[in-house]
Amino acid sequence: MGTVSGNSSGKSGRRTRLSPQRRRAQLIELGVELLASRPLEQISVEDIADRAGVSRGLLFHYFASKHDFHVAVVQHISSDMLERTAPDENLDPMEMLRGTVVAYVDYVTERPGTYVSMLRGSVSADPDMRSVFEATRRAMVERTVTHLPSIGIDPDATVRLAVRGWVAFVEDITIAWLQQQGISTSPGPDDPEGGSALTREQFVDLAVAALPAVVASAQFASSG
Amino acid sequence: MGTVSGNSSGKSGRRTRLSPQRRRAQLIELGVELLASRPLEQISVEDIADRAGVSRGLLFHYFASKHDFHVAVVQHISSDMLERTAPDENLDPMEMLRGTVVAYVDYVTERPGTYVSMLRGSVSADPDMRSVFEATRRAMVERTVTHLPSIGIDPDATVRLAVRGWVAFVEDITIAWLQQQGISTSPGPDDPEGGSALTREQFVDLAVAALPAVVASAQFASSG
């Protein structure tokens, strides 16, 4: 992430010349930073322009609308999450899986409010946002499925569906777990599940163990 | 469901006197019927009043706003689904589970468009709708968890979280499965997963087998 942000520019109005590529990245990263303290729908183009020390007009040169900017921010977070959780191909399959889950838990616990509001807040029903989330889930499914043949599992339609369901399983228990720890869902209609929260270790164990478990279920289902 | 609807009233303008209780139920059921052919956000209060042969004013006597009416329709569908899928306590646990899953698959395949648009359409982010869905999921989790002690499973926090995740797993694979069969998600941004669709039997097998699988994962996680 970094803080390319207001350091070299900011409210002083002093402008820094950046390449178009870097300017765009700077604007998106400013959006990501703001997202730590407020939901996406409360991030205005004026806020970003002001913090970047650029005119609103310049911002609209990079993003056609506030909506486009918001989508770019969500896209950035999703890509970043996928990179941070990329499987380490040097490990054996179960260690690779655990590494990915641990990186994912690190990622979401660094920005719990962002994660919950992105996936359960009012932006979550926007078609463009849904496309980004859906593409992210599909990428997670694909990279998981890729490793199955090496451990003797044929990724047929049932297995693929089970892996997809596992991604939804992890997403849902992550949100419930973050809420159990008192993470507010701004704007949050969900109530936390009752009961005490799992430790980070228990949570990781559950998410990791559930994958081979549902894949085995799929193999059972396929075999009739 | 039935078709209390336009039979005894309809566009003719002839009004039928119903008790407040029955009138309310009639209006909701008309909403449920219309939902089979269009997304909720396209169901207007005028449509319903017209079909029921009542004035718009009378409809607002029962529901303070179009939004309240929509929430009541979703609430009705959720309660109906819970009743239709209630576990048969006379069966042994695995048969009880299979019975519930089969009833659920029957329920959603009777109204695939409704199911997908409710859970993935633009209404899905509305806080009141989310509360209904969340309460429905919680009811599914609770009634599942209730049966665990009888088969020797302590429903601790980890097991409860796994059951919750299983509900999300089933919901997600159901939507993917319906989409694989060409159910359109109006207004649908999701692309169907590639690959051929599972048979109904394979799908039920997967959803059923996944529950004991993730519960076993949770027991493993809890034991450290």
TrEMBL record, chains A, B:
Residues 1-22 are annotated as: Disordered. Residues 1-11 have a biased composition (Polar residues). It comes from the Bacteria. Transmembrane segments: none annotated. Residues 12-22 have a biased composition (Basic residues). Pfam families: TetR_C_46 (PF21943), TetR_N (PF00440). One of its GO terms (molecular function) is DNA-binding transcription factor activity. This is Tetr family transcriptional regulator. It comes from Rhodococcus coprophilus. The lineage of its organism: Bacteria, Bacillati, Actinomycetota, Actinomycetes, Mycobacteriales.
